Amino acid sequence: MNSILHRNREEELQILFEDQWFVAVNKLPGLSVQDDKTKGRSLHHLLSIHYRAQGDSLRLWPIHRIDKRASGVIIFAKSKSATARLSAMFQEGAVRKCYWAVTAKEPSPEQGRWEDFIKKNGRVNKSFLYSDAEKGAKPAAAEYRLISRSDRYFMLEVVLLTGRHHQIRAQMSGRGMPIKGDIKYGSKRTNKDGSIHLHARSLSFVHPFNNEKICIEAAPINEVVWQVLSEGQ
């Protein structure tokens, strides 16, 4: 495959993978995927500037999203046909989505599966857990395992089996394990930079055009807790 594997020198734009159909980027915390009230600070905007600087007015379509305060792998398609195929793969569950999440409470057991119903409250932009099919609530499932620990924190690997609004944040909070820095879901304090310790670690799938197996991984930001817990992972 004629692909490009590199990191952009610009701190805010880390390109992880690129070919003629799509590009994958490591989103930093604090950046929205698409334009919002911050105007001009979105990942979409930065990537468009990057291509324009190369003389390419390429149009890009974001295939999925992660929370603004979180970090990790995001894919943008380069054509309508790539958008259609990649979007269908995400909707059909053909993409393995692996996250890292840091919490101050040890999970018990250390490995397992979470199954809940989740309902989004748009007024407060927050999702809530239910034990049964409350009207409007949708099933949410994820598999997790403890992969690292320090004297104060625990890092979980979480593989999403569904893609609900704030799913990992809500499911961890509902079990007494709010993500570090996530005061909306019960963390006692914020992170200094406004981030939360939730990172979209990898996306794995079969390439929709050439059938090659693809695994795109992103490193977390250079921050002491992430560095201690991710060492050797």
Q: What keywords describe this structure?
A:
alpha+beta; disordered N terminus; 33% strand; eleven-stranded mixed β-sheet; 233 residues
What does this structure look like?
The chain is an alpha+beta fold and 233 residues long. It has helices spanning 43-53, 80-91, 167-173, 224-230, and strands at residues 14-18, 22-27, 61-62, 71-77, 96-103, 111-121, 126-130, 138-149, 154-160, 198-206, 213-217. The protein contains four helices and eleven strands, in the order ββαββαβββββαββα. Strands 1, 2, 3, 4, 5, 6, 7, 8, 9, 10 and 11 form an eleven-stranded mixed sheet that branches. A hairpin with a 4-residue loop joins β8 (138-149) and β9 (154-160). The chain is globular.
